[in-house]
Amino acid sequence: MKLGVIGAGAIGGTIAALMDRAGHTVEATARGDRLAAIKSGGIHLSGAWGEHVAQIAAGERLTTAPDLALISVKAQDEADAIRANAAALEGVPLVVVQNGLDGLAQAQRLHGGSPTIGAIAFFAADCPAPGHVRALVPGPLYLGAGDGEPTADAVNAAGVLSSGISAKAVGNFVGCQWTKLVVNQINAMPAITGMSVQSTIADSRLCGAVLASMREAIHIGRRQGVGFGSLEGMNPLTLGLLGSAPPAVGRLLLRIMARRLGSEPVLGSTLQSVHRGLPTEIDYLNGAVAERARALGIEAPVNAAITRLVHEVEGSRRFFAPAEVVQRLG
Fold first, then answer.
1. Which CATH superfamily is domain 177-329 in?
2. Considering the entire predicted model, what is its pTM?
3. Cα→Cα distances 54→10, 19, 192, 205, Å
4. What spatial distance separates the first Cα and last Cα of the chain, rounded to whole Å?
5. Distance from C-alpha of 249 to C-alpha of 245, rounded to nearest angstrom
6. What distance in Å separates the CA atoms of residue 121 and residue 126, rounded to the nearest whole number?
7. Residue 139: helix, strand or coil by DSSP?
8. What is the Cα–Cα distance from 321 to 326, expressed in whole angstroms?
């Protein structure tokens, strides 16, 4: 089958390499040094899913219509990427692999009524060098749309993708998006401090701040009437403990989560963007929690403050020491 991958970064590049290894014909898009490296030497996959070099077609846009397309760009770049590839995407099922809550709805509006499926990547990967992707923590793709049973389009797309990576069509996709949003609260602190996810959770002061941001996200989701979904070890019971158990229990749960990440430092996508000098997705992660809170007429002060700190790092390229972070969060 012919697959198109729009955005061959850490997540998209990993999926592209895995699907090439599974025998599919893959064309990917990228920009700058990543594009040059892929065109000259392919995508080099390493890490948890083994080694593979995917010699695939690559350009700034898809050149032909695939049988199935995936888009895995930063949330703020999604609309432009869909418009730029509109000719190749017409009538093609599109899988939106993205953080945040609004990417699928926006893609559905822009994709002209063609099948559009949401996807949550529950694995960690990075790009140690242009043309190289490294899978740090393996995990599946969850596909779906809406808050009901999985759609036929999601089931079909999961069937294709499962030839290269574990892929599952799930019900209550909206609830799963909220669960991933809670999990993604671990992304901001590395971007603020320059430390790995594991190191920020090991620091009791920073761990407490991450827990507070998660609790706000859980509270806002509940106020919106969200029924949280289950993603691997993150289920409504675990989220209930994170949201209401004594802080010591919450910090223990976070440390258990961090141990599951392994010993290889996980930087998170937000810090990876900072290192590359690119805008982060923070407005679609912690910022989304603060925005949803304001829409309800309440506040999410920890998430709002974390969003501001990440933007300060984006502007100054200066990381904050843990003590300074705690002081700024009040």
1. N-(1-d-carboxylethyl)-l-norvaline Dehydrogenase; domain 2 (1.10.1040.10)
2. 0.94
3. 14, 9, 34, 42
4. 53
5. 6
6. 13
7. coil
8. 9
202-226 confidence digits (pLDDT tens): 999 999 999 999 999 999 999 999 9
How many residues in the chain?
330
Q: In the predicted model, what is the mean pLDDT of residues 56-78?
A: 97
pLDDT digits (tens, 9 = 90+) for 228-268: 999 987 889 999 989 999 999 999 999 998 888 888 899 99
Q: What's the rounded Cα separation, in Å, for the pair 191 and 211?
A: 16
Number of H helices, E strands in the chain: 16, 12
Cβ-count burial of 221 within 10 angstroms (0-12 exposed, 13-18 middle, 19+ buried)?
Answer: buried
Burial of residue 138 (CB within 10 Å: 0-12, 13-18, 19+) is middle
| 2-171 is a CATH 3.40.50.720 domain | yes
